[in-house]
Amino acid sequence: MKKPATDTNNPETELREIRINPIVPTESVLVATARGMRPKKAEQPAPRETRSHVETCPFCRGNENMTPPAITSFPEQGPWDIRIVENLYPILGDDRQTPNLAFGLQQTIDGYGRHEVIIDNSNHGLAIHEMTEQHLSNLFGIYRNHMESLYRSDNRLQYVLVFKNFGPAAGASIPHTHSQIIATPVIPDNVLAEVQNSRNYFQKQHQCIFCTLIDEALTFEATIYDRDSGHIRRKIDVGQYVIERGKKFVAIKPFASRYEWEVHILPLKHQADFLQTTEEDLDDLARVMRRTMARLDAVLGGVQYNYFLHSIPHTSDCLECDASYHWHLEICPRTSIPTGFELGSGLFVNTVSPEMAAEQLRNALIGPV
Ligand SMILES: [Zn+2]
Ligand SMILES: [Zn+2]
Ligand SMILES: [Zn+2]
């Protein structure tokens, strides 16, 4: 397999290579940075909503009667900062008396599950990087506690996915800042592929593949020497994938990024289950998250994005996953529209070199620490 080009700081260097996702090798990305090769149309930044309160918005304070009743509010007393409600238009719901009959190859699983909305902030138009770290830490705490209570509520629920859509191109239909939780009776394929592949890697290498990737990202320089003469053949700057580093978390630009500005945040210390995070962990996660989002905002300006949490599934056959899986948060900014080529081939096309994107994000000027 061809090694990635290293001299990507030079804008003259055009990349055109297929990169294999090290965690899920069936997923690959065509990195094609040559101007003439740009096959995609640019997605516009989301119209930026900066109002703190909107009279007609169902998620604004004072309009609580426009949503189903709150499942949880934070804080419990007084005006709420964060609120969880049932989704008015759930894509999964309660048991039905008469599930559809499956026939032949057309197998179905009843769409049983839970679909809830987390109103991230009572302030209508506040972006993630504008929220305080304390608020973000509380928000992550609410993700964690609510995921836990969903898993506990029904043992048919095999996976709880927390995600956020921001901007219409990312699928957000309501502009008020919010996240969603979907609990499903099956483990989604994306998660299953990560779980199975990282377990295979663990069985062969006796270490977590995510930890290995973090180690590689934090290695700042590698030198390849000529075997005969001992002269330096090539120096590789592998520290080029780190965007932001906290005490406990690191934000990394994946080498095989599907989206031009995709960034992943992972705990530095091995941890499979997001539900095991402590308050101290969440404080640092909040800091790394806020700074990462500020970098994306500084470089892209009001970008539309999705983010989602991948954590160990709570199923009995995933015991070894404690050692082999490593939870993480994937942030996927939507800067271009996928084409028929991508849908037809399953091959993502990325027109910005991940090394260059990482450098721009690292060098972005962001406000005070
Ligand atoms: Zn609102
Ligand atoms: Zn690990
Ligand atoms: Zn993942």
Describe it.
Helices cover 24% and strands 22% of the residues. It is of the alpha+beta class and 369 residues long. Helix 1 (133-153) crosses helix 4 and helix 4 (279-300) packs across helix 7 (354-363). It has two domains: 16-40 and 190-363, HIT-like (HIT family, subunit A); 64-93 and 109-187, HIT family, subunit A. It is globular. The chain has a ten-stranded antiparallel beta sheet with strand order 4-5-6-8-7-14-15-13-12-11, with helices on both faces. The chain has helices at 133-153, 189-205, 209-217, 279-300, 321-324, 340-345, 354-363, and strands at 16-20, 28-32, 41-42, 70-74, 82-86, 114-119, 159-166, 178-184, 222-225, 232-236, 242-245, 249-252, 263-267, 305-310, 328-333, 336-337, 348-350. The model is unreliable at 1-9 (pLDDT under 50). Bound molecules: zinc ion (3 copies). One zinc ion binds next to helix 3.
Shape: globular
Number of helices: 7
Q: Biggest sheet, open or closed, and with what strands and sense?
A: 10 strands, antiparallel
Which residues form runs of ≥5 with pLDDT under 50? 1-9
Radius of gyration: 22 Å
Task: Summarize the helices and strands and which ones pair or pack.
Blueprint: E1 16-20, E2 28-32, E3 41-42, E4 70-74, E5 82-86, E6 114-119, H1 133-153, E7 159-166, E8 178-184, H2 189-205, H3 209-217, E9 222-225, E10 232-236, E11 242-245, E12 249-252, E13 263-267, H4 279-300, E14 305-310, H5 321-324, E15 328-333, E16 336-337, H6 340-345, E17 348-350, H7 354-363
Parallel strand pairs: 2-17
Antiparallel strand pairs: 1-2, 3-16, 4-5, 5-6, 6-8, 7-8, 7-14, 9-10, 11-12, 12-13, 13-15, 14-15
The structure holds zinc ion (3 copies).
